[in-house]
Amino acid sequence: MGKKYSFLNKVVLITGGGRGIGLATAVAFRKLGAKVAIGDIDLELAQQAATKVQGFGGYLDVRSQNSFHDLIVQIEKQLGPIDILINNAGIMPMGAMVEESQAISDAQIDINLRGVIHGMKAVLPKMQERQTGHIVNVASLAGKYPIPGASIYCATKFAVVGLTASMQQELRNTPIGISAVLPSKVLTELSSGTGDSLPIPTVEPQDVANAIIQAIEHNLAEIAVPNYLTHTSKAYGLVPHWLNTGFRKLIGDDRILKGLDQNDRKAYSQRLSQLAQTK
């Protein structure tokens, strides 16, 4: 039996850690004795979250490599070198692709995909120097299953799943771990207004946090949340297109677009619009 992984005094950077999955993950790591650093584009939220976990909170715009660099310099001064990176920051606009503004489409690519790339490039060189470290990329089951009404989002998450798998091969002869975590519908602001229009299981942010920790403890390549969908998601691509389409019609996945409550998503959508204009 291998030695149990210890998070004691490990320095963990969580992007988008001010709320939702990021905050739940920060709390979970703190309970395990880790030193938690929270990066968020909302500095006030980052600092509030850091206070809750007795950690460090700083400004981070994952769209910017310079922003990552500046935050990491601060973290290293306050807590030490980064042992674990959780690439969690992400956005999920919903609606027909042709009705989505180019600014919102670009923001998804910049945050959900480029943000992950920037984070990995920011921490990997020093992890390689120290011959230790683990990166968790929070993707989505939407990176395995196409969702009508979230086409650009799906594209970014498919890309993150592929990026993670490729990097696992690049790093396979090193002690550095890299995992993809694929949550189902999470009860956060991102899924507001979807009601029961998403025909998939619903999970809590804490469930995702637990999966992130499990991925690191067992050096898992990939884990879905809920866990029982891990193998199902891998098998999806083996099923013929006509059968997939027939099944999706049967469960009524087209109601995702039809059932969206835009009033319920109004506050989130407005925040995304403001974010998309501030690059």
Automatic annotation (TrEMBL):
PANTHER family with a match to the protein in the record: PKSB, RETINOL DEHYDROGENASE 10
Name of the protein described by the UniProt record: 3-hydroxybutyrate dehydrogenase
Organism the protein comes from: Acinetobacter beijerinckii CIP 110307
Assigned protein family: Belongs to the short-chain dehydrogenases/reductases (SDR) family.
UniProtKB keywords: Oxidoreductase
UniProt keyword annotation of Zinc present: no
UniProt-recorded Gene Ontology molecular function terms: oxidoreductase activity, acting on the CH-OH group of donors, NAD or NADP as acceptor
